[in-house]
């Protein structure tokens, strides 16, 4: 079966790091998002070095505990949803994925039952 690289051009920044925080992969949007910090040159560096305190300590704890972290931010008049979650391979914890996507300031919310 042919594998497709669906995430490469997805308009969501996707960054993958190992359990120690070393960045393993970045899709095109992630490279653009972090261009001022080095873009694709960040692959192989530690994501902990990109975070000031107290975010660095929080990220260390997430890496150790393997728990997700979800929040929104606003920067340069753009609102984003940040979704950080563990990824596994064969059921074994391997690290974290961070998805960062622009979202509107006002958006519908549906409760479905």
Polypeptide structure, described:
The chain is of the alpha+beta class. The chain has a domain at 13-66 and 79-103: Beta-Lactamase. 15% of the residues lie in helices and 36% in strands. The protein has 2 helices and 5 strands; from the N terminus they run E-E-H-H-E-E-E. It has helices at residues 28-33, 55-65; strands at 13-18, 23-26, 69-75, 78-89, 92-103. The protein has a 5-stranded antiparallel β-sheet. A hairpin with a 2-residue loop joins strand 4 (78-89) and strand 5. The longest helix has 11 residues, at 55-65. It is globular, with a radius of gyration of 15 Å. The protein starts with 12 loop residues before the first strand and ends in a 10-residue tail after the last strand. The mean pLDDT is 95.
**CATH class annotation of one domain:** Alpha Beta
> Any idea what the radius of gyration is?
15 Å
Helix content: 10-25%
Classification by helices and strands: alpha+beta
CATH superfamily of one domain: PAS domain
- Count of discrete alpha- or pi-helical segments spanning 4 or more residues: 2
Query: How many individual β-strands?
Result: 5
Q: Major beta sheet, specifics?
A: 5 strands, antiparallel
Major sheet: order of its strands? Answer: 2-1-5-4-3
Quickly give the CATH architecture of one domain.
2-Layer Sandwich
Proportion of beta-strand residues: 35-45%
